[in-house]
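Prompt: For my understanding, could you write out one protein's sequence and backbone structure tokens?
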Amino acid sequence: MKQDLVSIITPAYKAAAYVGDTIASALAQSYGEWEMLIADDCSPDDTRAVVAQWAERDPRVRLLAMTRNGGPAAARNAALAQAQGRWIAFLDSDDLWLPAKLERSLAHAQANGAALVFTGFRRISFDGSRTGDYIGVPRTLTYRQLLGNTAIATSTVLIDRAQCGEVWMKPVFYDDFACWLEILKRGFVAHGLDEDLMRYRVMPRSVSRNKKRSAQEVWKAYRQVEGLGPLTSAWHFTSYALHALRKYRQF
């Protein structure tokens, strides 16, 4: 692993309209020691062409062309397999970082000896015309606390592989949530940096906005991935739902 390098993991599918802005937000970072691995999951639009154009401009941007559509977990794992950095950051193909995101996250991780750092953020509408309220984060989260919390947004996460080892996504619906739980289950604590450093794009008809489907998948994560009993699952699910309700009352 290259000690100062941040490997940015970006799965992409039908992202031609937004991925250029996402890449531009990485290029605008005040911390410049990074590589961006964009795994295109067989998009039917011009996503690969857009990414290839940006890669020609800056060699830190790399296109990984998946040979078959496998979903976000497979795309993230393809990028993780190529990652050379000690630090792993996640940036989804329709989200944006503010310029100080990597610098501030790294400083927070190093100051706290943290294996996993996450930050605050705001939502934006799909066309960028509307910006929502600031969504803050708790100072820390343990494994048990995260089971009942929605605080970790994927595109805010920074992971130190020197501490927690290799990072992989499980082939489940909420692969990111399962990954954070797996790391914290080893005894690590996630450290929240309560600063506005990311923009989460709310897409029309996105699965994450389908509350019934989301609830079903969170329950499956408790029962099938984490192996929790029904009563324990119900306890954590109630907390999770209350946190989600408070979050989604905001835009």
